[in-house]
Design a protein that fits this description.
alpha/beta, 9-stranded mixed β-sheet, 7-stranded mixed β-sheet
């Protein structure tokens, strides 16, 4: 499903030329929850690798861009994060030549892990007229097409009010196209864009006219946010 010219949604990821873009993996989530007293079975990494493997079978790309929040713990690197992030990198490097990490707000100490595989960590990444950044704070840089994560957008419907469906949002910010990516983490349902407040400064104004693309067995256009409210 092409969201804008040249940018195609492939499951929960985006493809632009020879780049695959995904975000908000938040590996280590289970260990953080365990420390808070909530026991979760540790299946997150396996689900991520299976889903990503299916995407790699659909597309052939040279570069993987992770748009923020590779890890979940803020101030340190947990044992699970060390182990699973390196496993994730090793899996991906069988399919791509290069990995770029765009630093998110959870990635304060991602550099020591990235250095183990000589992976570059940046604040933003530009491909032609496309600017990729996490979106948790404003950047001076702009571009005709801007891609952020951070918000984990999802929608719910009257027929199934207790169930959320991950989605892409496509709208504008200061006359530039703004795309908001869903989380690639299977354990985070996401924030309902029809009901909840937003964290990103890029979404502080009304998103009623943003287009919604729901991700299920494929990517479905679902009109605008205001049509779902």
């Amino acid at each position: 499903m092409e969201l804008v010219k040249g940018l195609r949604a492939v499951d929960l990821a985006l493809q632009y030329k020879d780049h695959l873009i995904l975000g908000d993996l938040q590996l280590g989530y289970e260990q953080v929850m365990q420390r808070r007293g909530l026991l979760l079975p540790r299946f997150q990494l396996q689900d991520i690798l299976e889903r990503l493997g299916k995407i790699f079978h659909q597309v052939r790309v040279k570069t993987l861009v992770i748009n923020g929040d590779v890890k979940h713990e803020f101030g340190k690197i947990l044992d699970q994060e060390w182990r699973e992030i390196l496993q994730f990198f090793d899996f991906c490097l069988k399919h791509v030549e290069k990995i770029i990490i765009v630093k998110g707000n959870h990635d304060l100490v991602i550099d020591p892990i990235a250095q183990k595989r000589n992976i570059k960590v940046v604040d933003f990444y530009r491909i032609d007229d496309v600017l990729i950044f996490h979106g948790h704070h404003l950047l001076k840089e702009t571009a005709p097409v801007m891609i952020i994560g951070h918000e984990h957008p999802a929608v719910s419907f009257k027929e199934k009010p207790g169930e959320k469906f991950k989605c892409f949002l496509v709208g504008t910010w200061k006359k530039n196209i703004l795309i908001v990516m869903p989380s690639f983490n299977p354990l985070t349902e996401g924030s309902d864009v029809t009901r909840e407040h937003f964290l990103s400064p890029y979404l502080k104004k009304s998103i009623a006219d943003f287009a919604v693309y729901v991700v299920e067995d494929k990517v479905y256009p679902f009109g605008k946010v205001k049509d779902l409210q």
